[in-house]
Amino acid sequence: MAEHEHVRVAVVGSGFGGLGAAVRLRREGVTDFVVLERADSVGGTWRDNSYPGCACDVPSHLYSFSFAPNPDWPRAFSGQPHIRAYLEHVTDLFGLRPHIRFGSEVKRMTWNGELLRWDIETSRGTLSADLVVSATGPLSEPRIPDIPGLDSFPGKVFHSARWDHDYDLRGKRVAVVGTGASAVQIVPAIQPEVGRLTLFQRTPPWVMPRVDRAIGGAERWLYRRLPVTARVRRGLLWGIRELQVQAFTKHPEELGFVERLARRNLARAVEDPALRAKLTPDYRIGCKRILLSNTYYPALAQPNVDVVAGGLAEVRGSTLVGADGSEAEADAIVFGTGFHVTDMPIAERVVGADGRTLAEAWKDGMEALRGASAAGFPNWLSIIGPNTGLGNSSMILMIESQLNYLADFLRRLDALGGRAALDARPAAVRAWNRRVQERMKRTVWNTGGCTSWYLDANGRNTTIWPGTTSEFRRATRRVDPAEYEVLRAPARGNASPQKAAEVGA
């Protein structure tokens, strides 16, 4: 990286969000950009999560870019290796590799109000950019809970997103902590080979059958020869999920039927009434993420598996103590305890116009205008920002909507001419967030009676979008000029940037 390299756009991260942004920049005619990636390959969460059984719970044809359809998905729900290979393919298909700076972890991004640019420090040097697109994603920084005595554990400890493939689990006593999407896939994948598996379950999840199947050669041939058939399949998958949204957002009582199906799924797989009672949630289905698996419950019913209700409370050497007082010996602990979602570490590294970090600005909860712009952080856009997550559909749909917003943001800057920046008005951010939170009150995520990673430390839902993907697409199709202030480069001798009343002024 050049010592004082300057680019028009710096994209942080090379997962779906970062690669999508890079493709959109190229398609908009912008070639003066870099993608800063801390690892040595693309893929984001699909590079980092390589644990046994790792797969997506969104159908393959919906979990891919609309502008880069893949007719060769091998299964209805694809595994991690195929999704990662798809992202490598997208990188090559659109010629993105010359733009990517591997091994470039962002250490600090500071807004330079005099020059109207972002000064960026990375592990490979410094550069500056007119615009920053933060695409680090909410599932990038593993979270391991603070368990008393964990430091004294003599065995192997790792997080599901940092799987140690050199460690042989065969015959070992393995503890899995957590019952989220990762754990539900890990447990059945490792259960047949470990000596004993102890699952520390703080809260049981609702688990529905996974209607997966192999996609045969004839069907893939059809998708290649007649791409419209793949588009129809994608459209049907999308439409079904759009129709489901009101049950999550407006009428949670309608989810009772789905809950009965989940109870039957549990009853069919687990005969032991005591174990079934442990695995039965006490909250409305949908409040926490609904998980898909045909093998999770059967694995828990095997004789070499124990389920500890209440989670892991303490570690005493190689003895793990559950919240219920039970004890288990372990050679290895695997944490499937999720990520820093509502307290993303990247926020500590972004310093805005008033000298505050984004983490400081968000100390009472994340909020961003249309999930993208934070007040006081000019020319900074987030992909998969606050309140853009989904509970029942594909995040790729939300990412593509935010790419539309990015494209129009760039057009607005071009129309202004000269050195200019757009800063979200605090009132606009508050108004947007107020509307989102008002809609959130009726949703199952807020009323379902659970504690989930959707909620921040204050109990506020700062992660989920309380509407359909089509609603979000309409909301992000264009930049609303009234929601931004225009910053101009200061006149000589003036220490602060001049502000115009509105975009285009």
TrEMBL record:
Top-level division of the source organism's lineage: Bacteria
Key words, A-Z: FAD, Flavoprotein, Oxidoreductase
Pfam families: FMO-like
Protein family: Belongs to the FAD-binding monooxygenase family.
PANTHER family in alphabetical order: FAD_NAD(P)-BINDING DOMAIN-CONTAINING PROTEIN-RELATED, L-ORNITHINE N(5)-MONOOXYGENASE-RELATED
Protein name: NAD(P)/FAD-dependent oxidoreductase
Gene source species: Streptomyces glaucus
